[in-house]
Amino acid sequence: MPNRRPRLEIVAPAASPAEAAAVAAAIEQFLRQTAPPPAPAPPVRNPWLRAALLEQTGRAPGAPTPWGDPHPWG
């Protein structure tokens, strides 16, 4: 997963390196505290339900399905 957070760079000629680091750390902390929570994991599909759906639609168990399976089950 690529890092989509902006790279912080402080441009202040009068600030000392310690002051610039303190400001950058405060902004980083703010970004961490206000970040949205991670998305919940998708629900696990019941294998018996999937087998019944495959059987009723006449599809082979190893074939791709239209139900959003990331890969066919064997």
Quick synopsis:
It is built from two helices and no strands. The protein has helices at 17-34, 47-57.
3D structure, described in words:
By secondary structure, the protein is an all-alpha fold. It has one domain (1-62). Helix content is 39%, strand content 0%. It has helices at residues 17-34, 47-57.
As a percent range, the share of strand residues is under 5%
Record field, number of beta strands: 0
Order of helices and strands: HH
- Extract low-pLDDT stretches: none
What is Rg?
A: 25 Å
Helical fraction: 25-40%
Features:
2 helices, 74 residues, mainly alpha
List the helices and strands and how they pair.
Blueprint: H1 17-34, H2 47-57
